[in-house]
Amino acid sequence: MKIVVGISGASGAIYGIRTLEVLNRLGIESHVVISNAAIQTIEHETPYKLKDILDLVSYSYDQRDIGAAISSGSFKVDGMIVAPCSIKTLSSIANSYNDELITRAADVQLKERRKLVLLVRETPFNLSHLNHMTLITQMGGVILPPVPSFYHLPKTVDDIVNQTVGKVLDQFGIDAHLFDRWKGMELSGTQL
């Protein structure tokens, strides 16, 4: 299996980093593009250095490298995750504005009918944001904002991050065992 991961400059870089950690742990080939804004966000929000992240991946590409392998549909991958996905990146993908590698690689996934999952990281959404998400969905992409669930009773931020990353990887049929799945609610011993 081969997965492309784009990390854009929105808050929430830990989602992309954790995704790469899990792919590395599972031995899944990863191809990463990290935007310049994401590098700044990573330095601000996390204890990770760029080198630490690049040590997790199989291949890395410069955001300006429009000629990279992942910019072509003939380069076979199983899909792409953009985590986090800034509104700028969302808008560029929705409008096929492929001036940078993250958006070009995402556009390739859509045109080749491969899985594309975007962790759109902005709230509240305005109508333009929603319209762009609708366009992506109509093209076959998956909008998966990092909205935490609480049925698994998270105790740490890591628990919340892991649940979201687990749901992202579920989109690719990868069960990384990152969170407890819903098993139903017991209602005072009542059997329905």
TrEMBL record:
Q: Does the keyword Flavoprotein apply?
A: yes
| Domain (Flavoprotein) ranges | 1-172
EC number in record:
2.5.1.129
Keywords attached to this entry = Flavoprotein, FMN, Prenyltransferase, Transferase
Tell me the leader sequence span. none
SUPFAM superfamilies noted in UniProt = Homo-oligomeric flavin-containing Cys decarboxylases, HFCD (SSF52507)
Tell me the superkingdom of the source.
Bacteria
Stored Pfam families: Flavoprotein (PF02441)
**Annotated residues for binding of dimethylallyl phosphate:** 151, 167
Kindly provide the name given to this protein in its UniProt entry: Flavin prenyltransferase UbiX
Q: Which organism is it from?
A: Fictibacillus barbaricus
